[in-house]
Amino acid sequence: MSVIDQIKAPIKTEMDSFESKFKASMASKTPLLDKITNYIVKRKGKQMRPMFVFLSAKLVGETNESTFRGASMIELLHTATLVHDDVVDDANMRRGFFSINALWKNKIAVLVGDFLLSKGLLLAVRNEDFHLLKLTSRAVEEMSEGELLQIEKARRLDIVEAVYYEIIRKKTASLIAACCAVGCASVTNEEAQIKKMWDFGEAIGIAFQIKDDLFDYQKQGLIGKPVGIDIKEQKMTLPLIYTLQQCDKATRRKIINTIKRHHNNPKKVDEVIAFVRECGGIEYATEKMHAYKAKAIEIISDVPDSEVKQSLNALIEYVIERNK
Three-class SS string for 254-307? Predict the structure, then answer.
């Protein structure tokens, strides 16, 4: 049994039922849309976000139809953002499969993303899940703000650590926070409990993004993705931000100049990666990632031990130990 299967054990029934419910939530009478949404369902990933929804619900109470709708809303939102991201990034591949824009071109991909977002809204409105819609809408707002803040700051390459955390809290962590809060809100209306699960998911989401940032500095072949991508895209991530804070002004200028003018030169990118490693950027970011992991575990420390809590802790561990 894989690690993921072990984590899913307490929610196996829910996860087994989820795929058909998620597929139904995307149903359309337009043949082209139906063809594309079928393609989306077939190339699903590890489904970590629905796992967070169901485990968070079961940590507090018993799953119900509202929990399934909440998981579908989150997955519709997540899928829509990925489809739109691939258009923005002009990416032809996603998880080893052709992206929607690669197969059906940009105009259709944008419309499919819009359709998925509308399906999530309608799913909530038709079932009067306004409490869940409020949480997912907050995530959409924060994700958009985070992306735009990153674009704004990337132009000048002047991101300090506090701004970096603000970007990833909004851009990445807000969706995992919404997963945990939506799961909780589907089984209880206790505001303090729902906020607690939002904070829990936010801490995990920040750790998740720092782990993603660290991949950029690993040795080639050790992970399931190329290295140096963030530097080539002129993204300021934690290992690099820390390294620039430790440099003298002349060295800092030199590194920023390399990222601005030579980010497409593999040799220059490798030099930046080597410098970040030498200056302790990897160790610093790893330490911060573990601090956020500890924060997440601490938030649910007062919850009685159970198979569900063990699975949630194992999922946190998986987030920071994964290799892709």
Answer: HHHHHHHHCCCCHHHHHHHHHHHHHCCHHHHHHHHHHHHHHHHHHHCCCCCCCH
Name beta bridge partners: 98.
93
Residues 6 or more apart in contact with residue 24 via CB below 8 angstroms: none
Query: Which CA distances in Å does 228 have to 104, 219, 278?
Result: 29, 10, 16
- Section 71-93 average pLDDT: 88
pLDDT digits (tens, 9 = 90+) for 148-168: 988 888 777 778 899 999 999
CA distance 282 to 180: 29
Contact, 199 vs 299, CB < 8 A? yes
Burial of 313 (0-12, 13-18, 19+ CB in 10 A): middle
Q: CA–CA separation, 24 vs 37, rounded Å?
A: 10
The dihedral through the CA atoms of 38, 90, 143, 233 has a sign that is positive
Domains of the chain by start residue, with CATH: 3-321 (1.10.600.10)
The pLDDT of 265-278, averaged and rounded, is 89
Instruction: Give me the residue label for tokens 């707002």.
Output: 141
Cα 111 from chain centre: 22
Q: How confident is the model at residue 224 (pLDDT cuts 50, 70, 90)?
A: very low
How many angstroms separate the CA atoms of 184 and 198, rounded?
9
Q: Where are the alpha helices (DSSP H) in the chain?
A: 3-8, 12-25, 31-42, 48-60, 65-88, 100-126, 130-154, 161-168, 174-185, 191-215, 229-232, 238-246, 249-261, 266-278, 281-299, 307-321
170, 178 Cβ separation under 8 angstroms: no
pLDDT at 283: 95
Query: Could you tell me the pTM of the whole model?
Result: 0.92
